[in-house]
Specification:
Length: about 300
């Protein structure tokens, strides 16, 4: 196989942010609306702090309003629920995101259930999960899987129909919504997970492989069908033999390059799409709340 195309998520995300900024300017001019995104960070997780800072910065760069709330590690569930309720009732806030993971004293599902589904720009509320699962276009869709679909649509010129896809991982954040999104594109989808009996055999069938297991370099190149398109959602920090650390995906990139026709790198593939899609979802939420047609981004 010749060298695969490297799917440049970083560049795609930059283009998407430009299109979002254009739509935000139009919303201001034509409708007098400035979309607002509230992000709540509980605790001091260093990676979460970086992500929340980027979200705030990119929100402002797109011309939207950013509201950031930092709450201590010891925050109780009641205190966090009170913050969510305040944001649900704030008319300047069109989108609400509670950064995950949350400290152990807080029940994640209870918090996600408290977010107004119309402001749920993460798409994690069961109302939005149900809308996606029934094939509706009216809900809000989780950012990372929607970013993966945008990259795939771009790669396949909008037509994924009939492709065989395997999603490795069954999380609520990536695996399950990815299954529903691929099904909506008329793919034939298999969801594999830790109890799947012959994972290499399942992967070998697939035209599209989406890896979202959180295990560094688990998917090997010789598992892939020749010409497979590989979307690597994993972001794993591993130690380098010479000291220090580096980021790797769930796919063994070097061996995958020998079989794949296209592949997302880590970093610079799916990761940057997550925040760009969050901004897109904030525009979608603001339009839906105001009865304005949602722009195609
Ligand atoms: N409420 C949510 N919490 C979390 C989500 C989410 O979608 N909603 N996703 C992740 C974290 N995340 C955003 O929140 C996120 C992860 C990764 C990236 C990214 O750009 N990654 C870069 C590498 C970054 C690095 O150097 O460490 C890349 O892959 O190129 C952005 C956002 C968990 N929590
Ligand atoms: Mg799993």
């Amino acid at each position: 196989m010749s060298e695969p195309k490297i799917i440049d998520g970083k560049a795609f995300a930059a283009g998407l942010r430009d299109r979002i900024a254009t739509e935000v300017a139009k919303l201001k001019e034509e409708n007098g609306i400035t979309p607002g995104l509230a992000v709540v960070l509980v605790g001091e997780d260093p990676a979460s702090q970086v992500y929340v800072r980027s979200k705030g910065k990119q929100t402002v760069e797109a011309g939207m309003q950013s509201f950031e709330y930092k709450m201590p590690e010891t925050t109780s569930q009641e205190e966090l629920l009170a913050k969510v309720e305040e944001l649900n009732n704030d008319p300047a806030v069109n989108g609400i995101l509670v950064q995950l993971p949350l400290p152990k004293q807080i029940d994640e599902q209870a918090v996600l259930a408290a977010i107004d589904p119309a402001k749920d720009v993460d798409g994690f509320h069961t109302t939005n999960v149900g809308l996606l699962g029934t094939g509706s276009d009216n809900g809000l869709v989780p950012c990372t899987p929607l970013g993966c679909i945008m990259l795939l649509r771009d790669h396949f010129d909008g037509n994924l129909s009939g492709k065989k896809a395997v999603v490795i991982g069954r999380s609520n954040i990536v695996g399950k919504p990815m299954f529903n999104l691929l099904l909506k594109e008329s793919c034939t989808v298999t969801v594999a997970h830790s109890r799947t009996q012959d994972l290499p055999g399942e992967v070998r069938q697939a035209d599209i492989v989406v890896a979202a297991v959180g295990r560094p370099e688990m998917v090997k190149g010789d598992w892939l069908k020749d010409g497979a398109v590989v979307i690597d959602v994993g972001i794993n920090r591993i130690d380098k033999p010479e000291g220090g650390t580096r980021l790797v995906g769930d796919v063994d990139f070097a061996s995958a390059c020998e079989r794949a026709s296209a592949i997302t790198p880590v970093p610079g593939g799916v990761g940057p799409m997550t925040i760009a899609v969050l901004l897109a979802n904030t525009v979608t939420a603001a339009c839906q709340q105001n009865g304005i047609a949602v722009p195609k981004l």
